Fold each of these.
Amino acid sequence: MCLTPIQAQEADEGQKFIVHEDMVKPSKIAEYETASKAFSEVLKEHGAVGAEYLAVSLDDMRYLYVSPIDNMAALDSRPVFEALNEALGEEGTKALMSKFDGTYDTHRDYVLNLSNELSYNSGEIVEEGVYFRHFDYHFVYADKETEAKAISKEWKELYTSKNIPQGYRIYTGGLGTEPLIMVVQWAKSAEEFYAQQAKTQEALGDIKDLMDRTMAITRKFESYDGRIRPDLSYQPEAVMAGN
């Protein structure tokens, strides 16, 4: 099963995603993951429809739960919790959620937009076992978003001209985020990714000017490694095609 981009959207606009993010306490990782697995197992047991999400754990102990949405109006619905209430009842859902108590400091929700126009060679992201992810967050100055898009196109043109095999996907920030361009790359492991990255840097050649201009419009830069977590996800194959 694969989710395709919403037909009403333009082809270069890409899929929208709602992301739930938990910042988990270092001492509570095991307890948190036990609760998260119990959460997904209930959905699997009851065959919940329309509640699919992909779980990702990052090396700063953030956990992301990514679900595709048709449009912004979909934010008014809560299909996961509707499915839980139907399966467990209100009290059962509260008991399940209580397993997370005390395991994280903060949590939030926000929207990301996949940009097909700015992404490069991203088809192999859906291959089985390709679970490693590398995230580069470029928090862009508010008055530089147009320039950021133009520079992103230059990066894609450079990768295309050099026929770089290593792909990436670009997500732009939506509701609940600062102006953002997020670059996501993938591999089967961290070792494979960084070996690919070294080859990519060599093939690209001198990128100082383009990199300098990229950082000039970036207010803040953050970089993380992470991993897709099928064990914490519900029907992840339904999300992978768009993520």
Amino acid sequence: MMRKIRLTPPAQRGARGARARLYIRWMPHLGAEAVALYELLRVLPDVGLDAPELEELAELLRSTPESVERSLEALKNAGFVAERDGWLEVAEHPPVAAGGSGDSGIEVVQAGAEGVTPDDYFRYMGTLPAPHILEFLNGYCERDGMTPDAVREALRIASERDARRVGYVRSILERWVERGVRTVEDVRRFEEDRRLKLVAEGGKGVSYGENRSAAARRKEGYEWFFGE
């Protein structure tokens, strides 16, 4: 039985990439220990543990080395972990369970890029968002075609203006939707135009993007929704 597993190439040092969300739908297929092991394997290199022993993993998980080894095999079979030349590569994004195939009744496909995440919200607003707030913010991507980076720009602007309220972020996003702003580049041009208008006291603005229709929902009251 192996006693140590390597999580990075032997010559590689440094921090890993951005953390990915673990889809809870995997829990019934892998078991709680395998899910916890995956999360643990992703963060250990960030704290300098590039080659933990199975006994160390078992202690952290309050399990046994034999059970950890079985969980590791389950992660390999499901595509969470891949064996390389003398080390193990831990997937940055957990696979998504979709459809049905094989003994487990699931088909493994790679997860796509996420929209606005709790980490994004916390970085700019200083608090963790309720699920309905994230759903609301990501709605601008799904419904209005805005990129996640543009929504993050709205959070950043609200933070810089010391207006860390969801209602204020909404007012920014609604103004952008009305003016057809969709991308970060659109945001930069829009904000530059807005500054020029303030200087010129009433200069004509510019619309960007394909959809320039006003959002009907911008006049609705969302105070109850945001608790403001």
Amino acid sequence: MNIKSHLFRTLKNLLFFVGLIFFSTSLLSQEISGRVYDDTSVLPGVTVFNSNNKTAVVTNEDGAFTIKAAVNDTLQFQSSFHESQDKIITLAEYRTILIVELKQKVNTLDEVLLSGEEKEFDVEKYNADLSKQIENDIENNPFDYGKAPAGGGVNLLALVKLVISIFKKKPEEKIIYATQIDLIQLFEKDKFFTETLLENTLKIPKQYKNLFLDYCAAKQIEEALLIEENKFQLLDLLVVSSNEFRDIVKEYEANK
């Protein structure tokens, strides 16, 4: 093998490896685009979350999205009314538009309506059960019903009190709402709710951050939504609130 041929082959291999490195680097920095549907139409407002680089976007009114992703990254598609879906990105999907179809959730009411087997309220059984409960309570707690009248019947006032106690509702649990401080701390400390998500996904300018979070707090977002397992539900609410807030800001700036 002569020196010229050896140098040519070495240069060829070097160019191949340089090209491979360049190609791999470009894949790591690329964005992938797609569209989300269900069996009836395109889906706006679906959260697309890259679990590898922790970025998130929301599909627009045409169900379209663009997100930073590399080969083998996992995209999570989340919607309040659809079953979630995970998608691992392949090399081939960089050359086309990613199409994702989500299945609609079927709730309990839908199942009842679809089955057509909704049971009617059984008045006779209900009255019999109530009478039996009263009878057992009289037998177990006779002194709670006062002195029986001459006819041997039960004290009517005590009986009415029992019926009221049966139907009396338990007091509702007090709902705790997130404050502006809670939301500010969330965006300062959380790995998902970040300044980047606030500016790029929710499209809230940096100078309006605190005012927007104050607006969200005024809408009474439950504090329970701030925990990790409820993050996509919270994001749905923030997307709606950000659209409203931007409309308010736009109108304000137009009238200045």
Amino acid sequence: MGTIYGYARVSTREQNLDRQLRALEEFGVRREHIFADKASGKNFDRPEWTRLVNVLREGDVLVVKSIDRLGRNYEEIIDQWRALIKNLRADVVVLDMPLLDSRNECDGVTGMLISDIVLQLLSYVAQVERESIRQRQREGIVAAKARGVRFGRPKKQRPAAYGVTKEGYLDGRVTRAEAARRLEISVSTFDKWLREDGVKKDNGLRCE
């Protein structure tokens, strides 16, 4: 039998690894063979995970406390799982989910096959949940808009001097640039307000 390695992960530096480390040591993983990351599980671009994969050899066993310690993206978890088992010929054990133990064999069905089926099921469930979350978000936005909730950047309020400045512009006494300067806004914002008021650029007004 090869070496037993452990992997632990938390998402932030403030979170504690103790519970995972204790579970790995109780399984029989020596502390010097445990690799731990404090990083997001969105992908496998993590320093300690990379180090671990580089030291794993055929016959070794990788132990994790739960499947979500490997990551949140089940498609990537499946890819990594298959790479470890089929390419490196190592075994993987998930303590919180006994079915995910590639060493096992049940009625002639290998642990590798059982694990593959379970991971595919988990991937499907995760995808359904993501779609459900997106649908709830869309429904929430529609309901909020129906209640009059506005999304995005709030509209810039027109200053009190806008009316007088606009009249000066319409009379030809004030240029667009001067109007914008007086109102402490950009020329494009002044143009936008004019458009909202129904003023067209082809009305012969001064545009300098």
